[in-house]
User: Which sequence fits this backbone?
């Protein structure tokens, strides 16, 4: 009989996910239940967007840029527009800056609530998923009311915005904000005070401050570890320079900067409050004036064709800092160079230290905790490295493992 | 092929993203959550194509996802309906001139596949529900009686 020896298992997860999110593959090496290594394999969703953009007129690239990601469509069109404005030397009007800020923050609200629902689903609390998605519809209604569509708003243009937020819209904006303020306590009660959720999130997927800095993570993922990094404060864009903002890190609210899933939840919830405050201030301080500094289309097209230059657009997306780079060359109607760096790209590197030493049942919640624009849990295969035997886990089985762990913890808690 | 009577009251849907931008995918989830609540009709998302009656495709089919999309199609038991969701799944939309796109999906599927197009960029949840209703009508026809 062959002598038993210690070996690790390899578990690829992805690339097809049954419920939401994009195709993506993570490979895990397992020792029993424990994860000893993790490796991310992106590329399933490669659509060649930069290539397509470089063959089109900048005006036509605005709708393309918001279709990079359907959750952060405002983020990408903002970055592309500001990068091109930078290259052309156009300044947006003051009113446009404020409208842009309001839209960015509304998107942050919907994105963070969406994330909270997904996180609750991953640890087996489907009631919370349905609750959070129910309250999310309110901000979607407001976005539709302002922009005319639930997703993909096409509101940005070079030099300003296409749609105004007029004073008769303010009551609806304030009503929505009030709705979230009233609900906020309940959200905190669900995600921060519930003992079983705490047990599933505390000390799980820990990212230390050293790792966060070394791996260049961005957004709430590293702010939860105590890293003070926020483009809205470090390098203000739109109207953020006029506002008084502070970094949302757990120690500001009397918690430890641990960097676990709990801290990440806390940071995202507190950012909801921060976004509500920002929108309120912006609506109150909204300056009068034109929506765009380039009202004449012909003059704008002339500038796009006749000027050369390069520009950078930075933004604090709901998932962290993201950058667009644009280079325009005189005499050409298309873009010479367009480079995009989205926030999930940075945060993927933080997966490895977070997964190390955790269990299979924790994979869904840790994978979700960076709020990836990817993350597929459809099919997981366990491959015995020695014999080559393949055992397949479906996403449901993996999800079931996660739910069972929650139940185990709950039962233990009652005893 | 005759279907049993138990078949039509509950359509199970498997969602596959072949490289879309997430917007349609999020709207699909919005369609099953309380505001639109399709689960009250017995329409729900399932985790495996082997359980599904309806395949919900989003995205313009990237090169890397092509084989996987076709594999999922083959894994789904007959009779099935394909719901092509969103403009980019229908015609590849804004991604029409990319080197990394193999779609649209209807050029890749076998000729006898029953396809229903749900348009919009992204599709609205109401439209998705309408698309599932169309699928329902088609599958009911297969049952052979007038109900």
Assistant:
């Amino acid at each position: 009989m062959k002598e038993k020896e210690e070996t690790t298992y390899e578990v690829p997860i992805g690339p097809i996910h049954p419920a939401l999110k994009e195709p993506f593959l993570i490979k895990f090496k397992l020792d029993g239940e424990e994860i000893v290594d993790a490796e991310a394999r992106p590329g399933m969703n490669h659509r060649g967007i930069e290539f397509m953009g470089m063959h089109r007129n900048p005006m036509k690239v605005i709708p393309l840029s918001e279709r990079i990601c359907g959750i952060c469509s405002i983020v990408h069109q903002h970055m592309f527009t500001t990068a091109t404005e930078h290259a052309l030397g156009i300044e947006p009007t003051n009113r446009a800056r404020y409208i842009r800020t309001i839209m960015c923050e509304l998107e942050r609200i919907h994105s963070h609530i969406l994330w909270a629902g997904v996180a609750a689903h991953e640890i087996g609390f489907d009631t919370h998923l349905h609750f959070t998605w129910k309250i999310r519809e309110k901000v979607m209604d407001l976005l539709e009311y302002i922009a005319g569509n639930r997703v993909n708003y096409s509101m940005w243009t070079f030099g300003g915005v296409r749609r105004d937020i007029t004073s008769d819209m303010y009551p609806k904006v304030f009503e929505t904000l009030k709705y979230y303020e009233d609900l906020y306590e309940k959200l905190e009660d669900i995600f921060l005070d519930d003992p079983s959720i705490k047990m599933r999130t505390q000390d799980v997927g820990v990212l230390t401050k050293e790792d966060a800095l070394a791996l260049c993570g961005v957004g709430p993922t590293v702010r939860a570890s105590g890293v003070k990094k926020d483009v809205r404060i470090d390098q203000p864009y739109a109207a953020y320079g006029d506002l008084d903002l502070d970094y949302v890190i757990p120690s500001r609210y009397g918690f430890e900067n641990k960097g676990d899933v709990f801290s990440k939840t806390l940071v995202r919830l507190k950012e909801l409050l921060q976004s509500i405050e920002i929108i309120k201030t912006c609506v109150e301080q909204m300056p009068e004036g034109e929506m765009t500094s380039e009202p004449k289309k012909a003059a704008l097209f002339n500038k796009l064709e006749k000027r050369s230059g390069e520009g950078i657009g930075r933004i604090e997306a709901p998932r962290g800092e993201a950058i667009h780079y644009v280079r325009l060359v005189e005499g050409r109607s298309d873009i010479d160079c367009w480079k995009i760096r989205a926030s999930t790209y940075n945060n993927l590197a933080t997966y490895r230290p977070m997964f190390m030493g955790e269990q299979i049942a924790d994979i869904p919640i840790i994978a979700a905790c960076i709020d990836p624009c990817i993350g597929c849990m459809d099919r997981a295969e366990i491959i015995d490295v020695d014999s080559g035997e393949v055992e397949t886990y479906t996403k449901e089985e993996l999800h079931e493992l996660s739910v069972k762990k929650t139940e185990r913890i709950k039962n233990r808690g009652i005893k | 092929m005759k279907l049993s009577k138990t078949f039509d009251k509950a359509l199970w849907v498997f969602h596959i993203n072949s490289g879309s931008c997430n917007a349609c995918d999020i709207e699909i989830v919005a369609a099953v959550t309380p505001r639109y609540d399709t689960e009250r009709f017995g329409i729900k998302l399932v985790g495996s194509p082997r359980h599904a009656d309806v395949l919900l495709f989003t995205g313009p089919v990237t090169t890397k996802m092509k084989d996987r999309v076709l594999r999922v199609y083959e894994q789904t038991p007959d009779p099935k309906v394909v719901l092509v969701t969103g403009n980019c799944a229908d015609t590849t939309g804004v991604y029409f001139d990319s080197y990394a796109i193999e779609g649209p999906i209807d050029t890749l599927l076998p000729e006898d596949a029953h396809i229903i197009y749900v348009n919009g960029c992204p599709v609205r949840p109401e439209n998705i529900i309408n698309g599932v209703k169309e699928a329902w009508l088609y599958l009911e026809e297969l049952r052979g009686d007038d109900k």
Helices of chain B lie at 23-32, 66-75, 87-91, 125-143. The mean pLDDT of chain B is 82.
